[in-house]
Amino acid sequence: MQNKIEPDQVCDEHQSATKILDFENQPIADEARTLAGRIGGGVEYVRRAHQLICEYVSPVYTVDEWQPASVTFARGKGSCSQRYACLEAMARANGIPTRVRGLWISGQFWAPRFRLLKHFLPGRVLLAWPQFYLSQRWISVERIFHDPEHLAAQSPNGFTNDGESLFEAVRHTAVDFEGSTKSCANGNCDLSRFVLDDAGLYATRDQLFADHPLLQHSIRGRVFEWVFGGRKSV
Questions:
Q1: Cβ partners under 8 Å of residue 224, min gap 6
Q2: Domains and CATH numbers, the chain
Q3: What pTM was computed for the model?
Q4: SS3 176
Q5: Lowest-confidence pick of 168-172, 187-191, 230-234
Q6: CB 175 within 8 A of CB 142
Q7: Do the Cβ atoms of 14 and 203 come closer than 8 Å?
C-alpha cells in the first residue's frame, strides 16, 4: 500500500514503530535514549546514530529484508538495507519521521563485488532508500553529511561498490542515484544509470516490501543466502 499523502506532509505512519522499525525494543530503545541524552535531536543526532551503527553493526551479505532492526543491532551484523533500517529505527525512536523511496536498481550495480558471478546477478533489485524529516523538510540519506555535489568534488571516483558498503560510503562519497552530479567530476559519481525504475515514496519500508517482490523470495535469492548469507561484505 503506497503512501498516498502529499510528498511534503508528515503522517503518523512516518513516526510509528513497525515490524521492521521496532524501535521500542532493546537494544534500539536503549541506544537511542542514550544518544539523544548526549546529542539532542536534529541532523547531528542522525549523523551520530549512523556512526554508532557503523561501529557496532558489521557489514555482511544477506537478502533478508524483513529482519527487525532490533535483531540486527543485537546480532551486531547486517546488510546495508538492514543497517539503514537500524538508522531509521533510531531516528523514529527520537521523534524524527522517516520514509523510503523504492528504487529498482540494476543487478549489475553489484557486479564489482561478484565479478565471477556477474551472470548470476538478478536483473534488478529493490532498494529502500531512506529519507528523514529534518528542519521542516525531507532529506535523503545521501545528503545527511554533505550534498553529493560537494562529495563528488572531493572524491571524483564516486562510489564503485567494490570496497566499503553503501551504508559507510554516504559519509564521504557521493552516492548519487538521482543524477545530480552529472556535471561533476566527469560524471563518474552519477549512479542514475543503474536506476531502472522508481517504485515511489512509502511511509515505511514494511509497506514497500509488502507491495513488491523481493529477491529473498526468489530461487536466486535463496541460493545467494545459502552461499553468502552472514559472510562479511567488506
A1: 61, 63, 215
A2: 12-228 (3.10.620)
A3: 0.94
A4: strand
A5: 230-234
A6: yes
A7: yes
